[in-house]
Specification:
This protein has about 475 residues and is an alpha/beta fold. Strands 2-1-3-4-5-6 form a six-stranded parallel β-sheet, sandwiched between helices. Strands 15-16-17-19-18 form a five-stranded mixed barrel. The protein is globular, with a radius of gyration of 24 Å. It starts with 6 loop residues before the first helix and ends with a strand. The chain binds 5'-deoxyadenosine and iron/sulfur cluster. The site of 5'-deoxyadenosine has 12 residues, from strand 13.
């Protein structure tokens, strides 16, 4: 039956414009799936997200397209017909994780011939990785990059009809394709891309190479998407960009990020607004003011510092100093006393000396982060820092351990400071560890566990915080 379908003709009849073209291919895949179902095809899919919130958002788009194509989600990879990975390549261990997972899928593939294992995301923007997968994993049938995620239906259609490996990786794209289906993980919260790519070229970072130059979406499109999410029952929205503060810099006369944030915060019915990620080099006073004057903007700022040493920051191309970072932290804490500050820190950046590292510890102590994500520097092929002189592994490891204990020490100082307070919680799910209990989040992103019925999931509740457990609280419903 499938042989009767003339792929060439189907492609020739496809609309040229997007997203119409992709809706056309979603319909074609759906027809094909209906035919295959008569022959016993289950049409089950899985999307496995590896990496950051951008990757998770890509995963939601892939799920939305697959559902529209007639597939249904499964959690069992032995019972799966299309399994897609959205990959990360920011550190070497992310790549290793993907290889391990794909390697183990050989058995599933052999049991279920016709299964389409596909890989997309940042790793696919690296030619060596695509080549490596072609060579070592013949059963990976679909590969596409970050610039053409929206083309899943078209590429899947080709892979299904031809049975051959289908690869399409673009080096960059000026095109932003809007209005494709997307399937949110939680019905009560969603995320919205405000920009793609990055222009900062921090010397350790692969992101500008794999996600391309910064492209901001039109503010009106972003607002419309946020309004639709709220109309669809979302209480919380997260605005996503590699550096939200430079939003609009690529569009002459564009709305700035603080203006955009204000407009979204003022959508009636939106209870909570978050954003990720804010580069310290261009976080403006105006932004702090917008947060201060809008109680529904979350009291949480993720402010990656990377290093506390001005010399290292310079070689990282970060455009701020130890002193200016600390000044910014002070300003934020003064204006937003209830804010929680989190950060990213890299240890062992090439050329980092013990004195440089002491500066990092110093900033950790002074800034009193609520939590910090700590990373060992990972050499990324093609980035400038890969050619700098590297710090020996044993020294890096020892510094990493010291950093961890200082981070734990300082974050402990903030722990429990809200005990006794009644605070608003967005209830997210059942508590994994205790039946009859629920888990939710405070505005400052801290988790709270408390007793309550499942019917509260997806609602805002007042909870009295009764006990601190370090990274989370226990509480009780306060009516
Ligand atoms: N090595 C280690 N950590 C890195 N990050 C980005 N690139 C690297 C790298 N080459 C970290 C930064 C960034 C976070 C998302 O990942 O801290 O903020
Ligand atoms: Fe990477 Fe720097 Fe861009 Fe963040 S701002 S994505 S660390 S280049």
């Amino acid at each position: 039956m499938l042989n009767l379908i003339d792929l060439k003709e189907v492609i020739e009849n496809a609309p040229v414009e997007e997203p119409e073209r992709q809706f056309y291919f979603m319909d074609r895949v759906k027809e094909l799936v209906a035919i295959k179902k008569q022959e016993g095809y289950a049409a089950h899919f899985m999307v496995e997200v590896m990496g950051c919130q951008m990757s998770a958002k890509d995963g939601e788009k892939l799920k939305g397209i697959l559902e529209r194509c007639g597939y249904t989600e499964t959690l069992d990879d032995w019972d799966c017909d299309v399994l897609l990975f959205t990959t990360c390549t920011v550190r070497e261990n992310a790549n290793e994780k993907l290889y391990g997972r794909v390697g183990r899928l050989k058995h599933q593939y052999e049991k279920r011939r016709g299964m389409i294992i596909g890989i997309t995301g940042c790793m696919m923007q690296e030619h060596d990785e695509v080549e490596g997968i072609c060579k070592h994993y013949p059963y990976v049938k679909l590969m596409f990059g970050t610039h053409n995620i929206y083309k899943l239906a078209e590429l899947l259609y080709k892979a299904l009809i031809t049975g051959k490996r289908t690869i399409e990786v673009l080096d960059d794209s000026k095109l932003i394709v809007e209005n494709l289906p997307s399937e949110r993980k939680y019905r009560f919260k969603g995320s919205v891309n405000i920009s793609y790519g990055c222009n900062n070229f921090c010397t350790y970072c692969i992101v500008p190479y794999v996600r391309g130059r910064e492209k901001s979406r039109e503010a009106t499109d972003i607002l419309k998407e946020c309004e639709q999410l709220v109309a669809d029952g979302c209480l919380e929205i997260t605005l996503l960009g590699q550096n939200v503060n430079s939003y609009g810099n690529d569009i002459p006369g564009s709305t700035s990020f603080p203006e955009l944030l204000k407009a979204v915060a003022e959508i009636p019915g939106l209870k909570r607004l978050r954003f990720m990620t804010s580069n310290p080099k261009d976080l403006s006073d105006e932004l702090i003011e917008v947060i201060r004057t809008h109680p529904n903007i979350a009291r949480h700022i993720h402010l990656p510092m990377q290093s506390g040493s001005t010399a290292v920051l310079k070689r990282m191309n970060r455009h701020y100093t130890k002193e200016s970072y600390l000044e910014l932290v002070e300003k934020i804490r003064k204006t937003l006393p209830d804010v929680s500050l989190t950060t990213d820190i890299i240890v062992g950046f090439p050329g980092e000396t013990e004195d440089d590292f002491q500066d990092t510890l110093d900033v950790v102590r002074l800034a009193r982060f609520d939590s910090a994500y700590t990373f060992i520097y990972s050499k990324r092929h093609g980035t400038p820092a890969a050619d700098f002189e590297q710090v020996p592994e044993d020294i890096v490891k020892e510094r990493f351990d010291r950093l961890l204990s200082v981070v734990q020490e300082t974050s402990r100082e903030n722990e429990g400071s809200d005990i006794g307070k009644i605070m608003e919680v967005l209830v997210e799910e059942q508590d994994q560890n205790q039946t009859g209990h629920l888990t939710g989040r405070l505005s400052n992103n801290t988790l709270v566990h408390f007793e309550g019925p499942d019917s509260l999931i997806g609602t805002m509740q007042n909870v009295r915080l009764t006990e601190s457990k370090g990274f989370y609280y226990f509480g009780e419903l306060a009516g």
